[in-house]
Amino acid sequence: MNPAVRAIGRAALAAHPITLAEVQARAELLARHDNSYLVPIEIFADFAARLTDPKRPGGPFKSLCINGRRWFRYNSVYYDTPDLRSFHDHRQGRRLRFKIRERLYEDTGERQFEIKLKSGRGETVKFRQPMLPGDTALDQAPRDFLASVLRRTYDITAPTDLATSLVTDYQRATFVADGQRITCDAGMVCRDPRTGRSVRADGGLVLVESKTDGHLTEADRLLHGYGVRPAEFTKYCGALSALRPDLTANAWRRATRRVFTPTEPYAA
Question: Where does the VTC domain lie (predicted)?
Answer without folding.
Answer: 68-243
